[in-house]
Amino acid sequence: MNIVERNFYKLLRAGAYGTEEQIEPLSAWKWNRLYQLSMMHAVAHILYKGIEHCQDQFFVQVPKATLELWSQADNNDDSEGYDLLMSNRLTNPLLNHRLQDILDSEDSNIETRTALLHLVGIARFIMNAGIPVKRATEFGCFLREKNSYIDFMKLKEWTKSLEIDAMVQITAILLVKLLHFVPEELPFMQPTTDDKMERQVREMLRQKNSHAEQWYFEQGKNIFVHTSNSQAMLWHVRRSAKFFKYYPAETLTNFITSFAHSLSHIEE
Description:
Layout: H1 3-17, H2 28-40, H3 44-53, H4 64-72, H5 93-104, H6 110-128, H7 133-146, H8 152-161, H9 165-179, H10 195-204, H11 230-243, H12 248-263
Helix pairs in contact: 1-2, 1-3, 3-4, 6-7, 6-8, 11-12
């Protein structure tokens, strides 16, 4: 990671979890870029808390104009198309039926079901939009607050039933690499020597500079395919191909659903 990316995650961890992070010096231009990055990933309010948490450090010298923008940022709403990224349903009919049965069951507590919805939501965001920075951070907060209430044996049983184990593993790797969780905090994380999965995570985080909307992290131009935008179409085709091996049953129906959603919004 370059210095802007490193500071991004340091301030994210400081703002979300109150960890002690050593912020590296940035120019005014890079502070502005860091603000843009926080807005793109809908975590500006969390990074602002991180700035407040680290404000006594010598290198936390944010330009006044940028700091003012940060203080006014409100990223509570997700991007356009949130309806199809809802974590309480899947696009595959069979898997969605299993998910609804789980949510309707009374043999588990609300914390365990909520943990499952976090994992489903993160998986769908990865398939449709890119790096789930905000969702992974929120899931991390939930884990640290409710860890003792979650039935991880039941959670593993559900993820296996929903065929989402590989995506759960990718989520766990992201939590470890980006948010500095330790395996002991992630009982659902399976020991892995899968180099291909590690490479997939690294590829997700690689620098992208070809577009303003793809600055530093791989990020879709739009959450869903728009038929008037061939680049967005190709982006989704490539992304579906990448994750097909990790979640084949859902990946295919997810792409079809997003494409059908786009067709329904063609301007006459």
